[in-house]
Amino acid sequence: MKNWARLFAFLLTDGGVTVRNFNRGIIFFHNRSERLRYDFAESIAMTFGLRTSDDGFTCRAFSFEATKRLLQYSQTFRKKPYAHGTTKVYPEVRILKEIMEADEEILREFMRYAFSCDGSVHLSIRRSKNQWRFQKRVQLKCSHPILLNQYHQLLMRLNISSRIERADKRLIIDSREGLMRFADLIGFVDGVKISGKGGSKWRGLEKKTAPQHL
Fold this sequence. Notes:
- There is one protein chain.
- The chain has helices at 2-11, 34-48, 64-73, 97-100, 104-118, 145-157, 176-185, and strands spanning 15-20, 24-30, 53-54, 58-62, 82-84, 87-89, 119-128, 131-141, 163-165, 170-173.
- By secondary structure, it is α+β, with helices and mostly antiparallel strands.
- The strands form three sheets. Strands 1-2-4-3 form a four-stranded antiparallel beta sheet, with helices on one face.
- Helix 1 crosses helix 2 (34-48) and helix 1 (2-11) runs parallel beside helix 5.
- The model has no long low-confidence stretch (mean pLDDT 89).
């Protein structure tokens, strides 16, 4: 079950499943982290006994039978909404009931990989009047409203305080207690680094070590 939790974390963040011509299935994962692509490939090998290809950004496995098996658990892994006239309709994708109701060890494994894929660490130093303030937070971006709610529910199960910012489609942990519990119970996968933008001074720092300094 632990490996399944990891695999579904990949598929519900930067991954997905595609069936073409009703006889060709593709299981894929997009991420620039070599460590995460390696772990995805390992999960595919352990679950289905399949080899993967890796072009440095996308890791793929090809199997119609494996994709059919995955789609028995979830009819889609698409997260982006469909355009329906002037409104957006979100696909029927959910975190599996077996994961939502799993024991703490499984929850922690699922959330560790979900946050390593779609999560980020924000560290900043700002001056307020005559004081310097060190601001910090861990956040998870998710455009799908139901998935965002489910991530929030899983954090509550682990007694990690967090809040949802609907406008920015993200889940935020910024209290000292919440950050400490996140670091102790979930954290990030070894070797996954803060990417940052531009000349960010935190770029290249391992995500796993960042919460320890919060």
